[in-house]
């Protein structure tokens, strides 16, 4: 047997990609402590926190309008499943956090969908989960967006679509039903 055949199986690692946007980043540099585009390992039993207190938070936001601890992430495995997930918990007493338009007050938590937008104040964060198998740790990879995430990305529409595939929003703005016309009429 060759050393290649005897080598252990390489396991994949779950990675949480987070793309950050703030309209005044250029002038205020609130993300200057972030290590962008570099994967960072986090032990599975750690709860990385985001906020302005560098003694408590792993990811520091350099902004006095951000809470000392804004939010935390928890990596976990679903019961009776091999699927790994992330949970986000709002730790700010003053600022509500939204995840895909679900509002979280202080100490509220929610599972992160595999792709979602997290907002608080003027901050917009696109979170995307890359699945993996490792139970020892996960990775984070932070990115910076120069344009607003809410305008740049299109998440699945929450509006119902009729069986013929036409969205109700494509009708006239007055809410009038479309009128049938004869193609021979002028």
From TrEMBL:
Q: Known InterPro entries for this protein? A: FHA_dom, SMAD_FHA_dom_sf, TIFA
Its localization reads: Cytoplasm
A Pfam family this chain is assigned to: FHA
Gene Ontology terms, cellular component aspect? cytoplasm
Give the residue range of the signal peptide.
none
Q: Where is the FHA domain?
A: 50-121
Q: What is its main location?
A: cytoplasm
Could you tell me the Gene Ontology terms of the biological process aspect for this record?
A: innate immune response; positive regulation of canonical NF-kappaB signal transduction
**Would the keyword Glycosyltransferase turn up in this protein's UniProt record?**
no
| Polar residues bias (residue ranges) | 162-175
Identify the stretch(es) annotated as Disordered: 162-186
Q: PANTHER family attached here?
A: TRAF-INTERACTING PROTEIN WITH FHA DOMAIN-CONTAINING PROTEIN A, TRAF-INTERACTING PROTEIN WITH FHA DOMAIN-CONTAINING PROTEIN A FAMILY MEMBER
Family classification: Belongs to the TIFA family.
Q: What is this protein called?
A: TRAF-interacting protein with FHA domain-containing protein A
Q: Could you tell me the gene encoding this protein?
A: Tifa
């Amino acid at each position: 047997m060759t050393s290649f055949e005897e080598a252990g199986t390489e396991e994949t690692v779950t990675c949480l990609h987070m793309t950050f946007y703030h309209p005044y980043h250029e002038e205020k540099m609130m993300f200057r402590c972030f290590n962008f585009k570099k994967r960072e390992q986090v032990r599975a039993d750690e709860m990385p926190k985001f906020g302005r207190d560098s003694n408590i938070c792993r990811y520091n936001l350099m902004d006095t309008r951000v809470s000392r601890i804004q939010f935390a992430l928890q990596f976990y495995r679903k019961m009776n499943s091999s699927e790994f997930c992330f949970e986000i918990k709002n730790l700010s007493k003053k600022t509500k956090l939204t995840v895909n338009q679900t509002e979280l007050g202080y100490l509220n938590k929610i599972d992160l969908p595999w792709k979602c937008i997290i907002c608080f104040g003027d901050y917009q964060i696109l979170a995307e989960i890359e699945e993996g198998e490792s139970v020892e740790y996960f990775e984070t990879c932070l990115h910076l967006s120069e344009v607003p995430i809410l305008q740049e990305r299109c998440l699945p529409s929450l509006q119902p679509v009729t069986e013929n595939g036409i969205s109700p929003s494509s009708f006239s703005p007055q809410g009038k039903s479309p009128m049938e016309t004869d193609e021979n009429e002028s």
